[in-house]
């Protein structure tokens, strides 16, 4: 049972993101800003640091592919960027100590990296022609604010859950 | 794979929408009094309009019978569908996922509308779900043949979306045409896939385009692109021209209604 807990949790977060985008009242602040939930990738970040890097990268690939297939229909962007940002996160965390405040902050930084990388990718394949400053204003900053709120609520439960998962792995 | 996710999504979406529905009902109750007053005002107009529409429809039916015209480009079959998810990757991918797919008869490039107006087109289908690209997507291949209902009918294409004002751009209007504010824009049906006369929006502003050869009109869309929960997928009543169909098969990836 414990074995399935992590994939189930991540799958739930995956569906939750779609549902959040659908039900979130998008017209607050006149609909000027776009809030993107990034709780799934934050959970994967936490998994790399409290669980194991290998699992983080594998789940990054799986859910990146799923995200591409279901939500964007351009296979490759998230398939590539989820594992990459998870790896980047792990690299940064190796340089500094792993207390929960720092983990949360660095995960937000990596969300910003992910957002910017997605923007650059979309710019390259001509999905958008928006300039960076309006992207930052409309999407990047609101997204970071929203995910800060997510992290504050989810950091401790996620940490506990993945530590349990890591223990179970070690005992196997 | 996508069907499985679609199934899980609808499994989660149904109870959540129920709960959200309860909250929305409570909120609605607060505004009931104000709304009631407003609606009563409209009701008087409604009765008159209804009578007028009825007589016009009768007249139209009689006249088409006399002329022996079969069907019109405005004919369509609506199919009701419920939104089960929306892409969280908004701004780049303004798409929603609904619970009707190719097994229900949904096909690529069909027009999709809410009760108020056109919202987009079917981007892709799986047997039990389909993905709908909204008009507010920044995708430059998102083009729709549209008609402006002024004194004279003018044709152009809906190309692009102005994020700041949330206006659509109607391009390719003749430069000498006099276009007034608040004129209605509908789909023309000339693209071959969409039915005609589906409302899109109202003209807000007209500017000459880059080279001064055409005019571009800014359209305020009738439909709300944010709060969408139920949509109608429209099957064109008129036959789809052969050229369009062959073209569609030839380039499956590129889906323009042009």
Going by CATH, the homologous superfamily of the largest domain in chain B would be: Rod shape-determining protein MreC, domain 2
CATH class of the largest domain in chain B: Mainly Beta
- Please tally the β strands of chain A and state the result: 0
The count of β-strands of chain B is 12
Figure out the total of helices of chain B.
2
Compute the number of structural domains of chain A: 1
Our count of helices of chain A gives 6
Would you tell me which CATH topology of the largest domain in chain B applies? Thrombin, subunit H
Task: List SSEs of chain A in N-to-C order.
Answer: HHHHHH
Shape label of chain A: globular
Can you describe this structure?
The complex is a heterodimer of chains A (172) and B (258). With 172 residues, chain A is mainly alpha-helical. Chain A has one domain. Helix content of chain A is 80%, strand content 0%. Chain A contains six helices and no strands. Chain A has helices at residues 2-23, 39-50, 53-72, 77-95, 100-124, 132-171. In chain A, helix 3 (53-72) runs antiparallel to helix 4 (77-95) and helix 4 (77-95) runs antiparallel to helix 5 (100-124). Chain A is globular, with a radius of gyration of 16 Å. By secondary structure, chain B is of the alpha+beta class. Chain B folds into two domains: 1-70, no CATH class; 75-238, Rod shape-determining protein MreC, domain 2 (Thrombin, subunit H), CATH 2.40.10.350. Chain B is built from two helices and twelve strands; from the N terminus they run H-E-E-E-E-E-E-E-E-E-E-E-E-H. Chain B has helices at 2-67, 242-250, and strands spanning 76-86, 95-98, 111-113, 118-125, 130-134, 143-149, 153-162, 167-174, 184-187, 199-208, 214-221, 230-236. In chain B, strand 7 (153-162) and strand 8 form a beta hairpin. The longest helix of chain B is centred in the N-terminal third of the chain and has 66 residues, at 2-67. The radius of gyration of chain B is 20 Å and the shape is globular. Mean pLDDT of chain B is 81; it is low at 250-258. The chains are: A mainly alpha (172), B alpha+beta (258). Chains A and B meet through helix 1, helix 3, helix 5 and helix 6 of A and helix 1, strand 1 and strand 2 of B.
């Amino acid at each position: 049972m414990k074995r399935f807990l992590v994939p189930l949790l991540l799958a739930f977060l995956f569906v939750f993101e779609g549902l959040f985008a659908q039900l979130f009242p998008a017209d607050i602040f006149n609909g000027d800003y776009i809030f993107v939930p990034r709780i799934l990738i934050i959970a994967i970040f936490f998994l790399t640091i409290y669980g194991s890097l290998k699992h983080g990268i594998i789940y990054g690939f799986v859910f990146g592919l799923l995200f591409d297939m279901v939500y964007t229909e351009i296979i490759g962007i998230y398939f590539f960027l989820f594992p990459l940002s998870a790896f980047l996160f792990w690299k940064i965390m190796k340089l500094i100590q792993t207390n929960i405040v720092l983990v949360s902050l660095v995960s937000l930084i990596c969300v910003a990296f992910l957002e910017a990388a997605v923007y650059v990718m979309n710019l390259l394949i001509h999905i958008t022609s928006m300039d960076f400053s309006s992207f930052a204003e409309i999407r990047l900053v609101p997204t970071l604010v929203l995910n800060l709120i997510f992290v504050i609520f989810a950091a401790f439960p996620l940490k506990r859950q993945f530590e349990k998962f890591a223990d179970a792995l070690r005992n196997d | 794979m996508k069907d499985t996710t679609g199934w899980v999504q609808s499994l989660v979406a149904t109870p959540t929408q129920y709960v959200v529905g309860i909250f929305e009902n409570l909120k609605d109750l607060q505004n009931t009094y104000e709304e009631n007053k407003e609606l009563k005002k409209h009701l008087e107009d409604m009765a008159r309009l209804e009578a007028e529409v009825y007589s016009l429809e009768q007249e139209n039916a009689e006249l088409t019978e006399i002329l022996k015209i079969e069907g019109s480009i405005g004919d369509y079959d609506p199919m009701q569908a419920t939104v089960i998810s929306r892409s969280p990757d908004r701004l780049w991918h303004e798409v929603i996922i609904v619970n009707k797919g190719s097994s229900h008869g949904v096909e690529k490039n069909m027009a999709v509308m809410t009760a108020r107006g056109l919202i987009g087109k079917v981007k892709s289908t799986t047997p039990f779900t389909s993905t709908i690209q909204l008009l507010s997507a920044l995708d430059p291949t998102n083009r729709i043949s549209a008609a402006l209902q002024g004194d004279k009918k003018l044709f152009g294409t809906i190309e692009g979306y102005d994020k700041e004002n949330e206006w659509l751009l109607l391009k390719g209007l003749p430069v000498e045409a006099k276009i007034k504010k608040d004129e209605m824009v509908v789909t023309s049906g000339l693209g071959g896939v969409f039915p005609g006369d589906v409302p899109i929006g109202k003209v807000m502003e007209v500017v000459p385009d880059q080279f001064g050869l055409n005019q571009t009109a800014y359209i305020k869309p009738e439909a709300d692109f944010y709060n969408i929960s139920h949509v109608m997928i429209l099957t064109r009543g008129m036959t789809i021209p052969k050229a369009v169909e062959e073209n569609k098969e030839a380039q499956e990836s590129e889906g323009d209604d042009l």
